[in-house]
Structure prediction request, 656 residues.
Amino acid sequence: MNAVELHKISKTYDKGKLRAVHEVSFKVKKGELFGLIGSDGAGKTSLFRILTTVLLADSGSATVAGFDVVKDYQQIRNRVGYMPGKFSLYQDLTIKENLEFFAAIFGTTIDENYELIKDIYDQIKPFSDRRAGKLSGGMKQKLALCCALIHKPEVLLLDEPTTGVDVVSRKEFWAMLKALKEKGITILVSTPYMDEANLCERIALIQNGEIMSVDTPENIIKSFPTTLFAAKSENIYKLLNDFRSDAKVDSCYAFGEFLHITLKENGGSDIEDLKEFAAQKGHNDIFIQQITPGIEDSFIRLMQEKTQKPTH
Amino acid sequence: MFGLPVVQIILFGFALTNEVKNIEIIILDNAKDINSRQIINKIKASSYFQIQESVLNYNDIEKTFKKGNVKCALIFPAHFGDDLLHLGKAQVQIIADGSDPNIAKTVVNYLTAIIVDYQQLIAPSPALSYRIIPETRMLYNEEGNGSLNFIPGVMALVLMIVCTTLTSVAVVKEKELGTMEVLLVSPFKPVFVLIAKAIPYLLLSMINVIMILLLAVYLLDVQIKGNVFLLFFESVLFIITCLSLGLMISNITNSQQTAMLLSMMGMMLPTLIFTGFLFPLENMPLPFQIISHIIPARWYFIIVKAVMLKGLGFKYVWKETLILTGMTVVLLGIALKNFKIRLQ
Prediction:
């Protein structure tokens, strides 16, 4: 049985004017750490709300922990742990009070499932008398995770848990998710950060409310259809424009301090050809190298394919 | 935006007047002679009074007062006309319902004016005049203490505003802050949320009632004539009604601001106007009188006046109690029905 299943889920806002998600289908296996990767406004939060039963989809069906999101919504609500994208705990309650409150409404106690939250809770325990509203971003997220875990959920739904959190806390947070996965909890997590995609077992790339690809991060990278080059010169902005004017170049975009380039056709002397082209345009300190693509390259490539051949 | 000034102009222009008309009066005529009949006819002719019924004996007067509609009674002693003609002076007794001192005073003034007018009419000459001496009694409130009227009114107003406003933000606040989203994804039942929201305010408001009563008794010298526990029970019932109203507002609105405005502005004005403690309800145009029936404070005001000032028991206020209970059930039902188990 799959922990989460979506079948052609669509959702619009403003009476159909604003499309949030369109015919989204994917499956999350039991015990999996599944990532939903997409930029802001891609439809991730809408999907989470549909899966947590607080929002009704326009069409399509979905199940969480084997229960239908419309018919058996209460069963799902009893069984999942949910962390919304926006911090949603009681700001005027302390860490401890928040935890006690959520334990109480789920009819359990902190002690009963302490084992599950111990590693996370230990990190915020020194501040347990501080009000939730006064916590730093990282601590807020740790507390929210504790509250979502307090009733030992079967499925954990985390909507952008690392957005607005510093790099160190993000790392810690992902380590926690790994540890929770080991304990057998299915985790569906969304993030706009491509570098976090590699930390998931499988990922779904989502853009403009549509799923572009569902696979393991390795397979998605492997399925990158062409050779990728990284280029650099003195004047990187001019280099970008020059390469874009080159008929042989398929795509060229800035990526950190480099340009990432793909060619329409690959031959034996691509690097030399590119170097020569750049030199002709008057660039100095030219550096070009073949590289292995990352998730972001795959993402950009999939996005471009989508826009080049509109589906409808 | 434009509704409020229009409503206020209409309300204050038409409905709200301190003038009392169509006062229901009962007359006990022990004399049954020409002079007493002439006075009765004068009263009948006046647009201020409506003679309700003629009672036969003194004991019936208090019974009629307890029913609540009759505001005053006029009593002629036996031999009224004889006394007037032979002794040159006679007495009449005016009994007014002092639980509403403002109306009572106005009524007494009207009656006295009619009597004085009659006295001048029958005077044979300016030098030789008959004197009719009205003896006035304020029933339930011998001194005409003004606090008597406003204590029940203030209780109704304060509880209405405080309870409604406090709870009106309770649920909508969770929606606004986003805590509703996580609260929804849990095993809780909507009805428990409503109960949980109401209980703290119920306790606080009960303390409020006790405070108001203590102040009324020890600072303003208002006697609680009826059963204190009955008064307290009715107050708790009224508090629950107001809390239900607040919860209903909270469930149908989407922001704390709207909820606040609705409960403060939306409740303050109708409560002030339609409860009956500032402006007599009897004189309002019929539509306003009908509207006043849906204001919970109106019924509570009647109950408090009956229990606190008149010392009446439960059997005189069971109807009002039933109405408040009914309102509570309906309001809670609407609140529960409008509790959104999903986000919009």
